[in-house]
Amino acid sequence: MPDKYIIVPEREFAPHEECGIVGIISNTEKELARDIYYGLFALQHRGQESAGIAVQYNNDAIAYYKNMGLVSEVFGADELQLLPKTFAGIGHVRYSTTGSSNVINAQPVVFYGRHGRMAIAHNGNIANALVIKEKMIRAGHIFQSSVDSEVLASLINYYGAEDITTGIRKACEELVGAYALVLVAENKLFAARDPQGLKPLVLGIRGDDYVFASESCGLDAMDATMIRDVEPGEIIMIERGNKITSSHMSGIMRRSCIFEYVYLARSDSIIDGVGVYDARYECGKQLASLHKIDADIVAGVPDSALVSARGYSDISGIPYVDALGKNRYIGRTFIQPTQSMRESAVKIKLTAFKNNIAGKRLILIEDSIVRGTTCKKIIHLLRQSGAKEIHMLVASPVVKYPCYFGVDMDTREQLIGAFRTEEEICSEIGADSLHYIPLSNLTLACRGTGTTYCKGCFDGKYPLDVEQYYCRKEGLE
User: Residue 295's domain spans which residues?
Assistant: First the structure.
């Protein structure tokens, strides 16, 4: 950040989230909680701190359960039996950042409003959430948590005197940030995506059921067939009887998050018509064309970089091997809520296949380098395990700038690439060489143009003016 700005600590703002959401509505009463469970399980990579399910039954009643932990830890047979058969329900897996990891912030948020009992689940980050919250408090509203979703629920209820869709539209028009949401009320299921499409959301069908999920892999887990992506700025209402109503907000300007393809999404998902696997494989191919390295083997860091490593191997002709094994019972280190937890998790997350790499010159493909601590530990592990040389290639550009839209990269000081050259980063992580894919090549791999995606974490150009909510000019109040 230029000298004229002073970074305000992230914890002073509403918590950022990178989460997964599911919503389902049926014409017949079913045990939808189990279906939502499977959908959340498929989206577990998007949030590993808490999970929750809310279902509407008896027209205006909502039963819900949420707790801290993985989906399989929160929901056993007993917990699922607490949730009755229903026509509609939603679910959420959550990843929080600093200072907000507690059960009161778990979702869905259930509340009583103008249209009876309602439940909402949300993925993203509302940059002006505190501004809105202060306005609502002055108007007499009260809040129990620090999540953006409760602010959003209050705003929807505030503007929803006429109907819920109007409430959603007016509320969303006031929001600055990234979001995808599902809401259940009045035996209807609502979904909305921000006008930039920064957060993914897809619509699918299964018999007489309609299903929303953050990624298409969530639909697959519920045996639903993908119909399409929810469009940027679109609000969809689905009533029993398969009546679907779609409307759009104003100010639509597609800028989907390119980091979904780099790291966040699962490789088997399709987002905005682009296969995540295809994008990552193409990145590997382009890295092979750009950087020809004399080495014995190619390997990827599990899981997001494995596809890129195969792409590199196929073009370069250098054999692909497994250099690292992953403990499947630990979450992703990047989305642990504190740095100390991230560093500790690396120690038990990965092991090296010593027989595959001993005495070998290794090309190691990584999806991204954010803070650098994980890469440094991985390279140290591989050297201890006998790797002769380690040449790191990264299937994304240098992460130089904060993300204000719900990815845990809140200040430049946290980013190893913010103020270092490529050579300095290479020295810091302990690699023999280091190369990144150019931003233009990543964009092409994702089948995009210069204005298709939000690439703010790479180039500092954000689709929304949000820095005012996180920084203040020096000397000004």
Answer: 260-459
